[in-house]
Amino acid sequence: MVDRPQVVLSCATTLDGALDDSSPTRLVISDAADLARVDAERAACDAILVGPGTVRADNPRLLVRDPRLRAERVARGLAASPLRVTFTRSGGLSARAHLFTTREEGVGAPLVFTSAPHAEGLARELGRGAQVVSVSGPLTLGAIAANLATRGVRRLMIEGGAATLAAALAEGVADELQWAVAPWRLGDPAAPSIVPALRHLDGRHLAATLRDVRPCGSVVVFRYRIARPEAAAE
Ligand SMILES: NC(=O)c1ccc[n+]([C@@H]2O[C@H](COP(=O)([O-])OP(=O)(O)OC[C@H]3O[C@@H](n4cnc5c(N)ncnc54)[C@H](OP(=O)(O)O)[C@@H]3O)[C@@H](O)[C@H]2O)c1
Fold first, then answer.
1. Distance from C-alpha of 83 to C-alpha of 62, rounded to nearest angstrom
2. Closest residue (by CA) to atom 29 of ligand 1?
């Protein structure tokens, strides 16, 4: 029995695996229908994690947007949006990021996991915008997930970016992949890509089993169960 939450990896890519383009502005891959689907998935989780590169590049708020989904969570005695989580090994996160400046009633400050040498400086930088959690051992997604389990997180959604998805699969910290694929090719060799992460789904380290595939607006959403090969065969 693994002492961590159920972990759902979520991403949207182009046909050639791009998660974004290499320009400073964010590439729009999903459409409104898929964003609504992701919003509902967020609402069904206890926590949402993005990597620090995504905080820097996309500047997300990581909140549930649909008022109806938010009201349903509140009616269940939950905060309107799940716990928001990120991490940094370098300590390089700005207090001006939306993640740290956006506050909502009932939604606590995001958790920022970092290694012990950076914890004090980061806590000073982020102030009341975040709760900095100092990790004494290696700053892995496994360590973060285990810590979140102690905080009552049973379902964790990891929304990228490229390095974070790859790290989750490399560590085997993933139970499901929800992959929305848009019907066009980007052709930008410098774009952040899902492809390096997929090398871990080689059937030896991890096996992916297709559970569902369906269109959603202009994208197709693939849902895979992710497990160690021996568990996947059960
Ligand atoms: N289409 C989608 O579904 C989707 C979703 C999310 C993001 N994105 C895109 O993904 C891009 C960002 O991807 P990214 O790979 O640069 O960022 P990321 O995965 O969000 O974060 C990468 C950062 O993680 C830290 N890190 C250090 N060592 C690492 C390791 N071994 N494994 C993992 N992370 C490590 C580093 O930051 P520190 O130095 O601070 O530790 C590194 O810069 C953006 O362009 C964004 O638009 C797309």
1. 9
2. 163
